[in-house]
Write a structure and sequence with these properties.
It is a single chain. The chain has 3 helices and 6 strands; from the N terminus they run βββαβαββα. It is of the alpha/beta class. The longest helix is centred in the last third of the chain and has 10 residues, at 98-107.
């Protein structure tokens, strides 16, 4: 797949790009971490959209490096965005990560309890 040259190497192109993210206030950028970084396709995606005024939460799976450099990288490639709290899950722990994910979603305000129909 042909790519484009960036300051960090050759970034792949996206075969079917998302036309717009305008309708979103919050964007979760989820990927694995490879060699402490998100894959280059994530930079292709972020540089192809305007994140001004949006909140971006990095979400990663990893072996040892947690969020790696995603917060710094997304700060650079998503100018005008607020980089919110990220979530890093060890690849070996993904199957049992439900409680940690739910806790993160609640802590960041991405998941809220709905009022019950009776109260």
């Amino acid at each position: 797949m042909p790519g484009r040259t960036t300051t960090t190497g050759t970034a792949p192109t996206i075969a079917t790009p998302l036309p717009s993210i305008d309708q979103y206030d919050t964007v979760l950028l989820a990927s694995g971490i490879w060699n402490v970084r998100a894959p280059m396709i994530m930079t292709t995606f972020t540089e192809g959209h305007d994140f001004t005024g949006k909140t971006v939460h990095p979400v990663t799976t990893h072996a040892m490096s947690g969020l790696g450099t995603t917060e710094r990288d997304y700060t650079r490639s998503c100018p005008g965005a607020t980089i919110g709290e990220g979530l890093a899950v060890r690849g070996e722990e993904v199957r049992d990560a439900g409680p940690a994910i739910e806790s993160w979603l609640r802590r960041t305000g991405l998941l809220q309890d709905r009022p019950s129909a009776t109260g």
